Amino acid sequence: MQHLVDYFATIPSAHRSLILVGGLTLFMLLESGIPLFRGRYAKGPHAAINLFFTLTTVVVNFMMASVLLRASDWTAATEFGILNWLPTMPTWLYAIVGLLLLDLIGAYFVHWSEHKVRWMWRFHLVHHTDPHVDTTTANRHHPGESVFRFVFTTVAVVLAGAPIWMVFLYQSLSAMLSQYNHANIRFPAGLDRALRWVIVTPAMHRVHHHFTLPYTDTNFGNIFSCWDRLFGTFSHLETSQIVFGIDTHLDPAEHSRIGSLLRIPFQRHRAPVGAKFRE
C-alpha cells in the first residue's frame, strides 16, 4: 500500500495523462470488439465532438490545478478536515474512507446539484444531449461545467482533509470509472448486478441517460454506488427500454455541432416533460 501512496504522491503529469488516454483507448477497443449497441451511429464524428469537450475539460483542470494542490497542502499544514479528525487507522482503510468522501462531495453531490439548480442544469445539459452514449461521453462537459465541478472537487479536498496522493488517486479512479460506466460494451448481467453493489456499472449509469424523467434524475454516482442507495436516488430500467439523449434537445442540429452545444447554457430554458423546474 505504501508503494501506491508514494507513487501517487509524486505522479508525473505524463502518467496522469496516460491514465486518461489509456483508459479511453482501452474502452474504445472493447466497444469495437464487444459492443452492446451495434451500427447505430458514426463513431468518428461522434467521438470528435466528445473529444473536443474532453480537451476543454483537461485545459480547465490544468489551469486550476495549483488551487487543488494548495488546498491539499493547507489541510495538511493545519490538520483540517474529516480525515485529520478521525482516529489513526490502517492506510488501506484511510484510503477507502477518503475516496468515499471525495466521491460523495466531488462527484455525487455536484452531479445531484446540476440536476436540481436550473443554471447548473443548463451547463450539464451538454452531457445529456448525447444520443449515443459511449466511453467518449464521459468527459462531454461544457467548459463552464468543468469549472464548477472543479470547485466542488476543491471543496471536497478541504472538507475531507485529503493529502495530495489521495487527490491524484481519486482523480485517476474517477476518470477511469467514468469511462467504464459510460462504455458501450456488453457485460455479463450477473457480474454487473454483483459489481453495482460496490461501484457504478454501465447498466446502472445508462438509466441516468434515459431521455425522460424520472430516470434522468437518478443514479448520480460516479465511483461508488452506495450514495444512490443511501439517498434514495437509485433506479433500474431494462437496457432494451433506454433511449439516450434528453427530451428537450432531440434535434440533431443542436446535439451534433460543437457551436450549438457551447451555446446551450445561454439559451432560454426549456421545461422537460414532467418539468423539474417551475416557470
**Rough shape?**
globular
Q: Provide the structure class.
A: mainly alpha
Level of helix content? 55-70%
Largest sheet: none
- Total number of beta strands: 0
Following the backbone from N to C, one meets helices and strands in this order, namely HHHHHHHHHHHHH
Rounded Rg: 19 Å
Q: How big a fraction of the residues is strand?
A: under 5%
Unreliable residue stretches: none
Mean pLDDT: 93
For the termini, the CA-CA separation is: 53 Å
Q: Count the helices. How many?
A: 13
Describe the structure.
This protein has 279 residues and is mainly α. Helix 2 packs parallel to helix 8 and helix 5 crosses helix 8. The protein contains 13 helices and no strands.
Layout: helices, strands, pairs:
Blueprint: H1 2-9, H2 13-33, H3 43-78, H4 82-85, H5 91-116, H6 118-128, H7 143-160, H8 164-182, H9 189-195, H10 202-208, H11 226-230, H12 252-255, H13 258-263
Helix pairs in contact: 1-8, 2-8, 3-7, 5-6, 5-7, 5-8
Produce a short descriptive summary.
By secondary structure, this protein is mainly α. It has helices at residues 2-9, 13-33, 43-78, 82-85, 91-116, 118-128, 143-160, 164-182, 189-195, 202-208, 226-230, 252-255, 258-263. It is globular and about 55 Å long.
